Amino acid sequence: MQRLDIAHHAPEGYRAVMALEKYLHQNIEVSLLDLVKLRASQLNGCAFCVDMHATDLAKQGMPPRKIFAVSAWRETTFFTDTERAALALAEAVTHLGSGVSDEVWAQAAAQFDERQLSDLVLAIGTINLWNRIGVSTHLTPPPLEG
């Protein structure tokens, strides 16, 4: 059962995060954004966000095997160099305890210009906030259909 409806009790704050979300959707290719969000959500154990972003990727036409492989992206050939750089950065930013290595940063910088890198870091930070909201408030995915 959901503990707290933040959108109801802190509407201004919720709208501010949604405004950042709108900006990100206007500036990052949607499937890349959802891949990054899916990976961070897997690492953070946010069932609601894992379900939402995997479902969104499927609706965009991403092959199911590629979606299933996000948690093991290094072990497959399913991902482009750009996607790999974004996934590596998502993991490093999500696991801040070890920081973002120079190697991971250089790989990302080779794939994205400074504006794109800025947007990607904002996206990773934002999904980490959403994950913390989802996990702490016990937000759960909708029931399976059929």
Strand-residue proportion:
under 5%
Describe the largest sheet. none
CATH-defined superfamily: AhpD-like
Q: What would the CATH topology be? A: AhpD-like
Name the CATH class: Mainly Alpha
Overall spatial form: globular
- What's the N-to-C terminus distance? 22 Å
At CATH level 2, the architecture is Up-down Bundle
The count of helical stretches stands at 8
Helix percentage range: 55-70%
Classify the secondary structure makeup into a structural class. mainly alpha
> How many E-type strands?
0
User: Low-confidence runs (pLDDT<50, min 5 residues)?
Assistant: none
Radius of gyration: 15 Å
List the secondary-structure elements in sequence, H or E: HHHHHHHH
Number of discrete domains: 1
Average predicted confidence as pLDDT? 96
Features:
mainly alpha; 146 residues; 69% helix; AhpD-like
Structure notes:
By secondary structure, the protein is an all-alpha fold. The chain has a single domain (13-136), classed as Up-down Bundle (AhpD-like). It is built from eight helices and no strands. The chain has helices at residues 6-9, 11-27, 30-44, 47-59, 64-68, 81-94, 102-111, 114-136. Helix 3 (30-44) packs antiparallel against helix 4, helix 3 (30-44) packs parallel to helix 6 and helix 3 (30-44) crosses helix 8 (114-136).
